[in-house]
Design goal:
Number of helices: 11
CATH topology of the largest domain: Spore Coat Polysaccharide Biosynthesis Protein SpsA, Chain A
Strand order of the largest sheet: 3-6-5-4-7-10-9-11
EC number: 2.4.1.-
Shape: globular
Distance between the termini: 54 Å
Number of domains: 2
Radius of gyration: 21 Å
Organism: Paralvinella palmiformis
Family: Belongs to the glycosyltransferase 31 family.
Transmembrane segments: 16-37
Order of helices and strands: HEEHEEHEHEHEEHEEHHEEHEHH
Bound molecules: 2-acetamido-2-deoxy-beta-D-glucopyranose
GO molecular function: hexosyltransferase activity
């Protein structure tokens, strides 16, 4: 694709969206349906176009310039003498694997937990934020991790999808929410062995919308703030959560005796540095299986290795309607992750985010503190802040 072609189609798209009709439809069975029609006319000024052109002719999307700082691998190995005996000798079978895995150039690997049946969700991610070919400055790789359907009824379609997109890893167990932790650990194992040179990993689900431009800004900030990019689990860190004893998420006292889970992260999206991914995978053999994967991967294992999660809750939006507010107020970059189950909504959001990202810069900021990016651009990182203190890995594994 030439940059000229890129420019003209993008210009057309830009006009299309600037003269846009924002339709916000909030639907629920018993709640009223709200339709908000907002016709927003705008003129693309010459100077904007000039700035736009100069950026686009270099065929680069803005903000994606990450002064990549590679991971210092000297402390990769966790000292096994500090953790208990092996209690989970996980065995994984990878039924389908991509031909091309990661290479030296990839800075970020995004891996999506997907259900084998969710063909349409994977397709929409590939078409929207997961289309890695549109990011020219950040080398991002995308993989989907799925398991097997009950009777193998989806096997043929999945094989065709895998051949076409080369981004599917299928694990050899049956899809079930009690098997989610197998998926999580199987994914980490695959990634730490196949993507050894990658610096960051982002875990998401197939119904998570990722504002990649804001995400890159976070990553850039993390990279600038740390001499070595290591020891990070950045997420929406939950408060202490009560263990449910009833319902779909019921857990009995044999499975989990305490009343509260350790602090853990929302599974819709979390960022790991490669060393943390590796430490979590290795430690998983020593921590008894627990089927709620978010609790296990981002709570129990970090607790076992004394890894403190870094809270970035400001970058998460729970309510899709809130995104429309941000967009209307030109604050489209003030979120990175949102749970968006409606596929049409998904595409609509992407079209808006992408056209905005081409025209508007995310304000320059000296330092971004995770969790503050969405609200406060002036705040300076201070080393004495406890929530931002990331101890070296050797300190973290003192048991
Ligand atoms: C760390 O990186 C160096 C250079 O890339 C490599 O030779 C070495 O084997 C790596 N160490 C580990 C523990 O992976
Ligand atoms: C990804 O983006 C490229 C470049 O804009 C485009 O050619 C390609 O069709 C897109 N892929 C999908 C799956 O939409
Ligand atoms: C998890 O996967 C295994 C292996 O495929 C399967 O036997 C088991 O039934 C699955 N668990 C559930 C709860 O379905
Ligand atoms: C607790 O749950 C596990 C897994 O579902 C089950 O195997 C076990 O029998 C249950 N224990 C009790 C005491 O109900
Ligand atoms: C940004 O954060 C700092 C430190 O918490 C606070 O002092 C300052 O008032 C905040 N600024 C804004 C605009 O919220």
């Amino acid at each position: 694709m030439t940059s000229q072609h890129f420019l003209t189609t993008e210009r057309k798209k830009t006009r299309l969206y600037l003269i846009c009709t924002l339709t916000l439809t909030v639907m629920s069975l018993d709640i009223t349906m709200v339709m908000l029609m907002c016709v927003h006319q705008a003129v693309v000024y010459n100077e904007e176009l000039t700035a736009f052109t100069s950026r686009v002719t270099t065929n680069k999307l803005p903000y994606a310039v990450i002064r990549s700082k590679r991971y210092d691998n000297s402390s990769w190995d966790i000292d096994k003498s500090h953790v208990g005996p092996v209690v989970n000798p996980y065995q994984f079978k990878y039924v389908l694997e991509p031909r091309n895995v990661c290479d030296e150039g990839h800075l970020l690997v995004v891996y999506v937990h997907s259900d084998v049946r969710n063909f349409d969700r994977r397709a929409v991610i590939r078409k929207t934020w997961g289309n890695t070919s549109i990011y020219t400055d950040i080398q991002m790789k995308l993989f989907f991790f799925v398991a097997m359907s009950q009777r193998g009824e989806d096997d043929d379609v999945l094989r065709a999808e895998a051949r076409e997109n080369d981004d599917i890893i299928q694990l050899g167990f049956i899809e079930h929410y009690h098997n989610m932790t197998y998926k999580a650990i199987g994914a980490l194992k695959w990634l730490v062995t196949r993507c050894k040179t990658v610096t960051y990993l982002l875990k998401t689900d197939d119904d998570t919308f990722v504002n990649t431009f804001a995400l890159f800004k976070h990553i850039e900030a993390l990279s600038e703030d740390h001499l070595y990019v290591s020891g990070l689990l950045v997420c929406c860190r939950g408060h202490l959560k009560l263990v449910y004893r009833y319902g779909k998420w019921a857990v009995n006292r044999t499975e989990y005796p305490d009343d509260y889970y350790p602090h853990y992260c929302s599974g819709i999206a979390y960022i790991l540095t490669a060393d943390v991914a590796r430490a979590i995978y290795r430690t998983s053999a020593h921590v008894p299986y627990f089927w709620i994967d978010d609790v296990y991967v981002t709570g129990m294992i970090p607790e076992a290795i004394r890894l403190r999660q870094i809270d970035m809750r400001g970058a998460y939006i729970r309510d899709v309607g809130k995104i429309d507010e941000l967009f209307a107020g030109n604050e489209w970059y003030k979120f990175a992750f949102c749970h968006v189950p409606d596929l049409h909504h998904f595409e609509r959001l992407w079209n808006i985010v992408r056209s905005k990202a081409l025209l508007e810069r995310i304000p320059d900021i000296e330092v971004v503190v995770p969790g503050r990016l969405a609200n406060n651009y002036t705040y300076r990182y201070r080393a004495d802040l406890p929530y931002y203190y990331v101890p070296p890995l050797t300190e973290m594994i003192n048991y």
